[in-house]
Amino acid sequence: MITFFSTQHALHAPVWEFYRGQRVPCFESPARAQFVHAELLARGHAIRAPEVDSTPLLAQVHAPRYLAFLASAWAEWQGLSGGQATLQPFPSVWPVRSLRSDVEPANFTAKLGLYSMDNGTPLDAGTWAAAKEGADAATSAVDLLAQGQVRSAFCATRPPGHHAGPDFMGGYCFLNNAAVAAQAFLQQGCERVAVLDVDYHHGNGTQSIFYRRSDVLVVSLHGDPQTEYPFYLGHADETGEGPGQGFNLNLPLAAGTPAAAWFDALDLACERITRFGAQALVVSLGLDTYAEDPISTFALQPEDFLRLGQRLARLKIPSVFVLEGGYAAAALGSNAVNVLEGFEQ
Ligand code: Q9C
Ligand code: ZN
Q1: Alpha carbon distance 326, 321 (integer Å)
Q2: Residue nearest to atom 10 of ligand 1 (CA)
Q3: Residues involved in catalysis
Q4: Number of domains in the chain
Q5: Residue 39, ligand 1, Cβ within 6 A
Q6: What ipTM, to 2 d.p.?
Q7: What is the pLDDT of residues 215-231, one digit of tens each?
Q8: Quick check: pTM over 0.90?
Q9: Which of 17, 182, 245, 253 has the greatest count of CB atoms below 10 A from its CB?
């Protein structure tokens, strides 16, 4: 399976985040993609640089004012931080219920809060460039499939994307690469596209982007938001709205769920995708379901990722895999490539 990968991912390298009252090194680090890249090379997989500009698709997935903010955020922050490269911007105020989000404030910190769902998503000088390369990778992968020579591709992208909504960042995500890929499939003439999100965390951004639409089915299995991030979305009763009613399926699983129950939920997800008649599949491939993940509680073992790939291959639909979370960095490459090789068996 061909992989789209850009060394530009490393331009996004914030140093620390808040975790349980402390500053800790960012879990979402450049090392993650380096481990994936190294494993792809070691196991003989072809790697290409993204070559298709995602700008028109990004405008279909994200709000113009959010994209404009992201592209200029670091330059604007330089005015406040005095150009000290080690200072990271964090939001400290948010427009929660009863406050207005229709008016964009002039104040940078107020804008950062308007466009953020948490204070756990630091951005830095290269965030826009790195995230844009990820969206370009998603676009390039769909373009490659549309040429008809191959039926699957992998985007080894970071930062991840599935928590990024129409007009906000969060959960280490800025641009929703999976949504870009789904939108690209529609642009290529598909009428029904499924997004399957197997990251440990609910893909709230992807759900929100497609919640009122019936052309993109969004299915997610994830840690129960009663106890797991993103907390405020991902419950089983969220089934879509208006024309999208019935085209969103959440399969929340209790923290600590064993692998056997996870695969039962995966079967339900796959059955729904088949019943939908999806002509293309986007897999939000988070590997933070791995037993050794430092911020998650599921129990998948390395061989379970082969099994995941095998199960998805049985859907027999053109598939684009997009890397999302997974924070046991040294195991991320082998777990990700196991999915790809399981799919190809
Ligand atoms: N503030 C993905 O897996 N919680 N994102 C971090 C520290 C956020 C994970 C807690 C977890 C987000 C793509
Ligand atoms: Zn995750």
Answers
A1: 14
A2: 19
A3: 163
A4: 1
A5: no
A6: 0.96
A7: 999 999 999 999 999 99
A8: yes
A9: 182
Residue whose CB lies within 8 A of the most ligand 1 atoms, among 20, 29, 90, 163, for a mutation test: 163
Is the distance from the beta carbon of residue 5 to the nearest atom of ligand 1 less than 6 Å? no
Is-contact 159 172, C-beta < 8 A? Answer: yes
**Among 90, 155, 295, 323, which residue has the most ligand 1 atoms within 8 Å of its CB, making it the best to mutate?**
295
Question: Cβ distance 130 to 10 under 8 Å?
Answer: yes
What residues make up the domain containing 188?
A: 2-344
Helix (H, G, I), strand (E, B) or coil at 222: strand
Residues 6+ apart with CB under 8 A from 37: 5, 47, 156, 333
The protein residue whose alpha carbon is closest to atom 1 in ligand 1 is 120
Q: In a 10 Å sphere around its CB, with 0-12 CB exposed, 13-18 middle and 19+ buried, how is residue 129 labelled?
A: middle
Phi, psi of 41 (to 5 degrees): -65, -45
Ligand 2 centroid to Cα of residue 47, in Å, is 24
Query: pLDDT, tens digit, for every residue of 25-55?
Result: 999 999 999 999 999 999 999 999 999 999 9
Residue whose Cα lies nearest atom 2 of ligand 1: it is: 325
What is the signed CA dihedral for 324, 330, 334, 336, rounded to 10 degrees? 0
* Closest atom of ligand 1 to CA, residue 326: 3
108: its two tokens: 């940078």
